[in-house]
Design brief:
It is built from 13 helices and twelve strands. The chain is 44% helix and 17% strand. It is of the alpha/beta class and 366 residues long. The structure holds 5-amino-5-deoxy-1-O-phosphono-D-mannitol. It catalyses: D-fructose 6-phosphate + L-glutamine = D-glucosamine 6-phosphate + L-glutamate.
Length: 366
């Protein structure tokens, strides 16, 4: 059942080229610059006229929501708020009938996310779901939705469900952009063409198994780690930190790279691994100066870089290359080495990778 892999997590990491492809099947038409999402097309008018979109989720699904915020605001120009379901439900939130609430949940059974959906529904919002488990509770509560079709995810640490959620959110961002006319047709064609090829690039990103295993052997005795990213790379840093802490029990924090100097920089010394998302995109130069700040304090830099990069290579202690693609697709590619880095680190520390202590696959209590 593990298809020859030692753990479900490793199998699920390697399934991602396929699961991402499954998630796009019948939904994108690159040549026409068109996205079709059957499960939400009934709400096209609502999406066209929405004042804002509120995303509710927990854990890794919440990180996917942050990526969604970036993509929907960038391409569809609708304001997006991303909320921890557990905070949203107890806050007497302001919700109107012109709001769209998107609930993201792999299991479709997370208690807090369900309660947030019920609350928003009572208050008249249109509720859409992004879930993986077909027929689970959240899809039954929502008005419409888009399944991720990633297949069963057994490892407690979410991997292929995350990349599928991000794939769905990318499709929703481009669908709403198409409805609202916020992107030139040529840009839609270009982005959808790249999206269609993402499974091949993810396949390439998976080549870092050896490199991540070596870096894992170098950081396995650390007690703390920091993950830094900017823009769309920030939620990737959060996700990398969550993966590491949940399966290796190394305390890890994700931070927006520029926030480091407002506090966490005090933690940096030669013992501290600092994982930086340093790919060539709009924040590249800024990230390089953040790397220099870490280096000046003797932090050990592990950088995720674009294939062929030289500037970061000259500064970092370790680099992991990922293929080049438009910035919109950074989360789908940069998350892959972080998943593998956590996996190998946990393994070297003798941890139970698939079933970390104190955690359940779905959190059905509040
Ligand atoms: O099933 P859900 O997506 O609603 O679950 C949400 C979180 O419990 C989940 O993502 C959790 O954070 C994972 N163990 C992270 O790997």
């Amino acid at each position: 059942e593990k298809a020859g892999y030692d753990h479900f997590m490793l199998k699920e990491i390697h399934e991602q080229p396929r699961s991402i492809r499954d998630c796009m099947r019948g939904r994108i038409y690159p040549q026409e610059g068109m996205v079709q999402l059957g499960g939400i097309k009934e709400y096209a008018e609502k999406l066209r006229n929405a004042d804002r979109i509120i995303i509710v989720a927990c854990g890794t699904s919440w990180h996917a929501g942050l990526v969604g915020e970036y993509l929907i605001e960038e391409y569809a120009r609708v304001p997006v708020g991303v909320e921890y379901a557990s905070e949203f439900r107890y806050r007497n939130p302001i919700i109107t009938e012109r709001d769209i609430v998107i609930a993201i949940s792999q299991s479709g059974e997370t208690a807090d996310t369900m309660a947030a959906v019920e609350l928003a529904k009572e208050r008249g919002a249109t509720i859409l779901g992004i879930c993986n488990v077909v027929g689970s509770s959240i899809p039954r509560l929502t008005h419409g939705g888009v399944y991720t079709h990633a297949g069963p995810e057994i490892g407690v640490a979410s991997t292929k469900a995350f990349t599928a959620q991000v794939t769905v959110l990318t499709q929703i961002a481009l669908y709403v952009a198409q409805l609202r006319g916020t992107l030139p047709q040529s840009k839609l064609v270009e982005l959808l063409t790249t999206l269609q090829d993402i499974p091949l690039l993810v396949e390439k990103a998976l080549n870092c198994d050896e490199a991540t295993r070596y870096i894992a052997s170098e950081i396995k005795d650390a007690t703390n780690a920091i993950f830094l990213g900017r823009g769309i790379g920030f939620p990737v840093a959060l996700e990398g930190a969550l993966k590491l802490k949940e399966i290796s029990y190394i305390h890890a924090e994700g931070y927006p790279a520029a926030e480091m100097k407002h506090g966490p920089i005090a933690l940096i010394d030669e013992e501290m691994p600092v994982v930086v998302i340093a790919t060539q995109n709009s924040s590249y130069e800024k990230v390089i100066s953040n790397i220099q700040e870490v280096k000046a304090r003797k932090g050990r830099i592990i950088a995720i870089v674009t294939e062929g990069d030289t500037a970061v290579k000259g500064l970092a202690d370790y680099v992991i290359e990922i293929p080049h693609a438009d910035e919109a697709f950074l989360p789908l590619l940069a998350t892959i080495p972080l998943q593998l880095l956590s996996y190998h680190t946990a393994l070297l520390r003798g941890c139970n990778v698939d079933q970390p202590r104190n955690l359940a696959k779905s959190v059905t209590v509040e």
